[in-house]
Amino acid sequence: MITPTYLKPGDKIGLVAPARKISVEEISKAIEFITLEGFQVEYSPDLFASNNQFGGTDIQRKNSFQEMLDNPEIKAILAVRGGYGSVRIIDDIDFTLFKKNPKWICGFSDVTVFHSHIHSNYKIETLHCTMPFSINDDLFSKNNIRYMIDALTGRELKYNTTPHSLNRYGEASGIVIGGNLSILYSLIGSLSDINTDNKILLIEDVDEYLYHIDRMMMNLKRSGKLANLAGIIVGGMTEMNDNTIPFGKSAEEIVAEHCAEYSFPVCFNFPVGHGEKNFAIRLGQITGLKVDSNGGYIFQK
After folding, report:
1. I need a surface site. Which of 8, 62, 98, 206 has the fewest CB within 10 A?
2. CA 285, CA 126: separation in Å to the nearest integer?
3. Please, which residues have CB within 8 angstroms of residue 275's CB and are 6 or more apart in sequence?
Protein backbone atom coordinates (compact mmCIF):
# COMPACT_ATOMS: atom_id res chain seq x y z
CA MET A 1 0.00 0.00 0.00
CA ILE A 2 1.08 3.58 -0.71
CA THR A 3 0.84 6.18 2.04
CA PRO A 4 0.14 9.73 0.81
CA THR A 5 2.40 12.43 2.22
CA TYR A 6 1.34 13.44 5.71
CA LEU A 7 0.26 17.05 6.16
CA LYS A 8 2.14 19.81 7.93
CA PRO A 9 0.82 23.16 9.24
CA GLY A 10 -0.05 25.52 6.42
CA ASP A 11 -0.96 22.78 3.94
CA LYS A 12 -4.15 23.11 1.94
CA ILE A 13 -7.22 20.91 2.40
CA GLY A 14 -9.69 20.96 -0.49
CA LEU A 15 -13.43 20.61 0.16
CA VAL A 16 -15.70 18.74 -2.26
CA ALA A 17 -19.38 17.72 -2.35
CA PRO A 18 -19.53 14.47 -4.35
CA ALA A 19 -22.94 13.52 -3.01
CA ARG A 20 -25.63 15.60 -1.29
CA LYS A 21 -25.72 19.38 -1.46
CA ILE A 22 -24.40 21.68 1.25
CA SER A 23 -24.70 25.32 2.27
CA VAL A 24 -22.08 27.80 3.47
CA GLU A 25 -23.70 27.92 6.90
CA GLU A 26 -23.55 24.15 7.31
CA ILE A 27 -19.76 23.99 6.97
CA SER A 28 -18.65 27.32 8.46
CA LYS A 29 -17.87 25.86 11.88
CA ALA A 30 -15.76 23.08 10.39
CA ILE A 31 -13.77 25.54 8.31
CA GLU A 32 -13.15 27.57 11.47
CA PHE A 33 -11.93 24.50 13.38
CA ILE A 34 -9.66 23.29 10.57
CA THR A 35 -8.17 26.77 10.19
CA LEU A 36 -7.53 26.96 13.92
CA GLU A 37 -5.60 23.70 13.62
CA GLY A 38 -3.21 25.49 11.25
CA PHE A 39 -4.42 24.45 7.79
CA GLN A 40 -5.77 26.33 4.80
CA VAL A 41 -9.15 25.43 3.31
CA GLU A 42 -9.94 25.76 -0.39
CA TYR A 43 -13.03 25.01 -2.47
CA SER A 44 -14.56 25.94 -5.79
CA PRO A 45 -17.79 27.98 -6.19
CA ASP A 46 -19.50 24.77 -7.33
CA LEU A 47 -19.17 23.40 -3.80
CA PHE A 48 -22.52 25.04 -3.08
CA ALA A 49 -24.23 24.06 -6.33
CA SER A 50 -27.64 22.40 -6.16
CA ASN A 51 -29.38 19.89 -8.39
CA ASN A 52 -32.33 18.43 -6.53
CA GLN A 53 -30.72 16.62 -3.58
CA PHE A 54 -27.26 16.57 -5.16
CA GLY A 55 -24.46 19.09 -4.76
CA GLY A 56 -24.74 20.06 -8.41
CA THR A 57 -25.04 17.96 -11.54
CA ASP A 58 -22.93 14.84 -11.98
CA ILE A 59 -20.66 16.85 -14.28
CA GLN A 60 -20.27 19.68 -11.75
CA ARG A 61 -19.49 17.31 -8.90
CA LYS A 62 -17.08 15.28 -11.03
CA ASN A 63 -15.27 18.39 -12.27
CA SER A 64 -14.96 19.85 -8.77
CA PHE A 65 -13.47 16.61 -7.48
CA GLN A 66 -11.16 16.34 -10.48
CA GLU A 67 -9.94 19.90 -9.94
CA MET A 68 -8.93 19.15 -6.36
CA LEU A 69 -7.45 15.79 -7.35
CA ASP A 70 -5.20 17.37 -10.00
CA ASN A 71 -4.17 20.46 -8.02
CA PRO A 72 -0.65 19.79 -6.62
CA GLU A 73 -1.14 22.36 -3.87
CA ILE A 74 -4.03 20.39 -2.35
CA LYS A 75 -2.63 17.82 0.08
CA ALA A 76 -5.93 16.31 1.23
CA ILE A 77 -9.47 16.23 -0.15
CA LEU A 78 -12.28 16.25 2.39
CA ALA A 79 -15.86 15.48 1.39
CA VAL A 80 -18.21 17.92 3.13
CA ARG A 81 -20.98 15.37 3.67
CA GLY A 82 -22.35 12.01 2.62
CA GLY A 83 -25.83 11.15 1.44
CA TYR A 84 -25.83 9.60 -2.01
CA GLY A 85 -24.11 10.44 -5.27
CA SER A 86 -20.41 9.47 -5.27
CA VAL A 87 -21.09 6.26 -7.19
CA ARG A 88 -22.58 8.34 -10.04
CA ILE A 89 -19.23 10.03 -10.72
CA ILE A 90 -16.56 7.55 -9.66
CA ASP A 91 -16.11 5.96 -13.10
CA ASP A 92 -15.64 9.33 -14.82
CA ILE A 93 -12.81 10.54 -12.60
CA ASP A 94 -9.28 10.41 -14.01
CA PHE A 95 -6.86 9.18 -11.34
CA THR A 96 -3.73 9.49 -13.53
CA LEU A 97 -2.18 12.44 -11.67
CA PHE A 98 -3.42 11.11 -8.33
CA LYS A 99 -1.47 7.89 -8.87
CA LYS A 100 1.69 9.93 -9.50
CA ASN A 101 1.08 12.29 -6.58
CA PRO A 102 -1.20 10.58 -4.02
CA LYS A 103 -3.08 12.73 -1.53
CA TRP A 104 -5.44 11.89 1.30
CA ILE A 105 -9.10 11.32 0.35
CA CYS A 106 -11.14 11.87 3.50
CA GLY A 107 -14.65 11.29 4.80
CA PHE A 108 -17.09 8.52 5.66
CA SER A 109 -20.56 7.24 4.76
CA ASP A 110 -21.04 7.73 0.98
CA VAL A 111 -17.30 8.45 0.67
CA THR A 112 -16.89 4.68 1.13
CA VAL A 113 -17.23 4.58 -2.68
CA PHE A 114 -13.91 6.43 -3.00
CA HIS A 115 -12.24 4.50 -0.19
CA SER A 116 -13.07 1.16 -1.78
CA HIS A 117 -12.37 2.18 -5.37
CA ILE A 118 -8.98 3.67 -4.54
CA HIS A 119 -8.00 0.72 -2.34
CA SER A 120 -8.92 -1.88 -4.95
CA ASN A 121 -7.56 -0.12 -8.03
CA TYR A 122 -4.62 1.99 -6.82
CA LYS A 123 -3.48 0.53 -3.46
CA ILE A 124 -3.35 4.01 -1.90
CA GLU A 125 -4.36 4.67 1.70
CA THR A 126 -7.35 6.91 2.45
CA LEU A 127 -8.84 8.37 5.62
CA HIS A 128 -12.16 7.38 7.20
CA CYS A 129 -13.04 10.39 9.35
CA THR A 130 -15.53 13.10 10.26
CA MET A 131 -16.91 15.53 7.66
CA PRO A 132 -17.76 19.24 7.86
CA PHE A 133 -21.54 18.66 7.83
CA SER A 134 -21.18 16.71 11.08
CA ILE A 135 -19.29 19.50 12.86
CA ASN A 136 -21.02 21.71 15.40
CA ASP A 137 -19.74 23.96 18.16
CA ASP A 138 -19.35 21.22 20.76
CA LEU A 139 -16.63 19.12 22.36
CA PHE A 140 -17.39 16.03 20.26
CA SER A 141 -16.95 18.02 17.04
CA LYS A 142 -13.68 19.56 18.18
CA ASN A 143 -12.36 16.14 19.18
CA ASN A 144 -13.46 14.58 15.88
CA ILE A 145 -11.58 17.29 13.97
CA ARG A 146 -8.49 16.63 16.09
CA TYR A 147 -8.72 12.88 15.40
CA MET A 148 -8.78 13.74 11.70
CA ILE A 149 -5.79 16.10 11.99
CA ASP A 150 -3.86 13.51 14.03
CA ALA A 151 -4.40 10.98 11.27
CA LEU A 152 -3.53 13.41 8.48
CA THR A 153 -0.31 14.52 10.16
CA GLY A 154 0.95 10.98 10.72
CA ARG A 155 0.53 10.64 14.46
CA GLU A 156 0.09 7.24 16.05
CA LEU A 157 -3.58 6.40 16.45
CA LYS A 158 -4.49 4.51 19.61
CA TYR A 159 -8.12 3.90 20.51
CA ASN A 160 -9.65 2.02 23.42
CA THR A 161 -13.32 1.03 23.41
CA THR A 162 -15.57 -0.10 26.23
CA PRO A 163 -16.44 -3.79 26.66
CA HIS A 164 -19.45 -5.12 24.76
CA SER A 165 -21.36 -8.30 25.52
CA LEU A 166 -21.09 -9.50 21.92
CA ASN A 167 -17.34 -8.90 21.56
CA ARG A 168 -15.33 -11.93 20.52
CA TYR A 169 -11.91 -11.97 22.07
CA GLY A 170 -8.71 -12.30 20.11
CA GLU A 171 -5.90 -10.41 18.42
CA ALA A 172 -5.34 -9.57 14.80
CA SER A 173 -3.08 -7.52 12.59
CA GLY A 174 -3.82 -6.60 9.02
CA ILE A 175 -4.80 -3.92 6.55
CA VAL A 176 -8.06 -2.26 7.58
CA ILE A 177 -10.67 -1.64 4.89
CA GLY A 178 -14.37 -0.90 4.70
CA GLY A 179 -16.72 1.85 5.78
CA ASN A 180 -20.47 2.12 5.36
CA LEU A 181 -22.07 -1.34 5.12
CA SER A 182 -24.80 -0.28 2.69
CA ILE A 183 -22.22 1.20 0.33
CA LEU A 184 -19.93 -1.83 0.54
CA TYR A 185 -22.93 -4.03 -0.28
CA SER A 186 -23.80 -1.86 -3.29
CA LEU A 187 -20.26 -2.09 -4.70
CA ILE A 188 -20.00 -5.88 -4.77
CA GLY A 189 -19.30 -7.09 -8.30
CA SER A 190 -18.21 -3.65 -9.52
CA LEU A 191 -14.79 -2.15 -10.25
CA SER A 192 -14.90 -0.68 -6.74
CA ASP A 193 -15.43 -4.00 -4.94
CA ILE A 194 -12.92 -4.89 -2.22
CA ASN A 195 -10.96 -8.06 -1.50
CA THR A 196 -11.31 -8.82 2.21
CA ASP A 197 -8.88 -11.74 2.55
CA ASN A 198 -6.64 -11.41 5.62
CA LYS A 199 -7.93 -7.90 6.27
CA ILE A 200 -9.70 -6.20 9.14
CA LEU A 201 -13.14 -5.09 7.99
CA LEU A 202 -14.64 -1.90 9.40
CA ILE A 203 -18.42 -1.52 9.06
CA GLU A 204 -20.97 1.06 10.22
CA ASP A 205 -24.42 2.17 9.09
CA VAL A 206 -27.30 4.55 9.77
CA ASP A 207 -31.07 4.67 9.23
CA GLU A 208 -31.36 1.13 7.90
CA TYR A 209 -34.03 -1.48 8.52
CA LEU A 210 -32.83 -4.42 10.58
CA TYR A 211 -33.80 -6.90 7.90
CA HIS A 212 -31.66 -4.88 5.47
CA ILE A 213 -28.71 -5.34 7.81
CA ASP A 214 -29.39 -9.08 7.77
CA ARG A 215 -29.65 -9.09 3.97
CA MET A 216 -26.33 -7.28 3.61
CA MET A 217 -24.53 -9.52 6.09
CA MET A 218 -25.92 -12.57 4.30
CA ASN A 219 -24.49 -11.17 1.07
CA LEU A 220 -21.06 -10.64 2.64
CA LYS A 221 -21.13 -14.22 3.88
CA ARG A 222 -22.38 -15.79 0.64
CA SER A 223 -19.89 -13.81 -1.47
CA GLY A 224 -17.01 -15.09 0.68
CA LYS A 225 -16.10 -11.76 2.21
CA LEU A 226 -16.28 -13.01 5.80
CA ALA A 227 -14.53 -16.36 5.38
CA ASN A 228 -10.92 -15.19 5.40
CA LEU A 229 -11.10 -12.01 7.47
CA ALA A 230 -8.48 -11.23 10.10
CA GLY A 231 -11.07 -9.37 12.19
CA ILE A 232 -14.10 -7.08 12.20
CA ILE A 233 -14.54 -3.66 13.77
CA VAL A 234 -18.21 -2.77 14.11
CA GLY A 235 -18.84 0.94 14.38
CA GLY A 236 -22.08 2.72 15.11
CA MET A 237 -25.30 1.08 13.98
CA THR A 238 -27.20 4.31 14.36
CA GLU A 239 -30.94 5.01 14.23
CA MET A 240 -31.90 1.54 13.08
CA ASN A 241 -35.51 0.88 11.99
CA ASP A 242 -37.79 -2.10 12.44
CA ASN A 243 -41.02 -3.32 10.87
CA THR A 244 -44.41 -3.62 12.57
CA ILE A 245 -43.57 -7.28 13.09
CA PRO A 246 -40.15 -7.03 14.80
CA PHE A 247 -37.13 -8.66 13.22
CA GLY A 248 -36.17 -9.91 16.64
CA LYS A 249 -32.50 -8.97 16.78
CA SER A 250 -30.50 -5.76 17.08
CA ALA A 251 -28.09 -4.79 14.31
CA GLU A 252 -25.18 -5.88 16.50
CA GLU A 253 -26.81 -9.25 17.17
CA ILE A 254 -27.32 -9.74 13.43
CA VAL A 255 -23.64 -9.08 12.75
CA ALA A 256 -22.60 -11.41 15.58
CA GLU A 257 -24.84 -14.18 14.26
CA HIS A 258 -23.31 -14.07 10.79
CA CYS A 259 -19.77 -14.03 12.20
CA ALA A 260 -20.39 -16.87 14.66
CA GLU A 261 -18.96 -19.65 12.48
CA TYR A 262 -15.63 -17.87 12.09
CA SER A 263 -12.81 -17.47 14.61
CA PHE A 264 -11.61 -13.89 14.02
CA PRO A 265 -11.93 -11.25 16.77
CA VAL A 266 -14.96 -8.96 16.61
CA CYS A 267 -15.02 -5.53 18.26
CA PHE A 268 -18.44 -3.93 18.71
CA ASN A 269 -19.40 -0.36 19.55
CA PHE A 270 -16.28 1.20 18.07
CA PRO A 271 -16.85 5.00 17.95
CA VAL A 272 -16.84 5.50 14.20
CA GLY A 273 -19.66 6.46 11.87
CA HIS A 274 -22.78 8.55 12.35
CA GLY A 275 -22.67 8.93 16.14
CA GLU A 276 -21.28 11.82 18.18
CA LYS A 277 -17.80 10.30 18.37
CA ASN A 278 -16.12 9.56 15.07
CA PHE A 279 -12.55 8.33 15.44
CA ALA A 280 -10.28 8.66 12.39
CA ILE A 281 -8.91 5.46 10.82
CA ARG A 282 -6.40 5.33 7.97
CA LEU A 283 -7.89 2.75 5.60
CA GLY A 284 -5.39 0.59 3.75
CA GLN A 285 -2.91 0.76 6.63
CA ILE A 286 -1.67 -2.11 8.79
CA THR A 287 -3.74 -2.01 11.97
CA GLY A 288 -3.54 -3.84 15.27
CA LEU A 289 -6.76 -5.10 16.86
CA LYS A 290 -7.06 -6.63 20.31
CA VAL A 291 -10.36 -7.55 21.94
CA ASP A 292 -10.50 -8.81 25.54
CA SER A 293 -12.43 -8.32 28.78
CA ASN A 294 -11.31 -4.69 28.89
CA GLY A 295 -12.90 -3.93 25.51
CA GLY A 296 -11.27 -3.25 22.18
CA TYR A 297 -7.87 -1.75 21.42
CA ILE A 298 -7.10 -0.44 17.93
CA PHE A 299 -3.66 0.79 16.97
CA GLN A 300 -2.09 2.38 13.88
CA LYS A 301 1.50 3.63 13.72
Report:
1. 8
2. 9
3. 235, 236, 238
Q: Are 120 and 191 in contact (CB under 8 A)?
A: yes
CA distance 277 to 81: 16
Predicted confidence (pLDDT) per residue in 115-146, tens digit: 999 999 999 999 999 999 999 888 888 899 99
Q: What torsion, rounded to 10 degrees, do the Cα atoms 142, 72, 122, 290 define?
A: -30
Residue-range domain boundaries for the chain = 12-152, 157-300
Amino acid of residue 47? L
Interior CA angle at 273 toward 272 and 277, to 5°?
A: 55
Name the E strands within 83-217: 104-107, 126-128, 157-161, 170-180, 200-206
- Looking only at the bridges linking them, the beta strands covering 281-283 and 286-292 are unpaired
Name the nearest CA neighbour of 282 among 57, 129, 53: 129
- Overall average pLDDT of the 92-98 stretch: 98
Q: What is the pTM of this model?
A: 0.96
Q: Check: CB of residue 193 under 8 Å from CB of residue 116.
A: yes
* Cα atoms found within 13 Å of the Cα of residue 186, Cβ hemisphere only: 18
pLDDT higher than threshold 90 for residue 91: yes
CATH hierarchy code of domain 157-300: 3.50.30.60
Domain 12-152 coded CATH 3.40.50.10740? yes
Question: In the prediction, which pLDDT does 138 show?
Answer: 86
Phi, psi of 108 (to 5 degrees): -145, -170
Closest CA to 204 of 92, 131, 108: 108
Helices and strands counted in the chain (H then E)? 8, 13
Q: Do domains 12-152 and 157-300 have the same CATH topology?
A: no
Distances (CA, A) of 46 to 20, 24, 66: 13, 12, 12
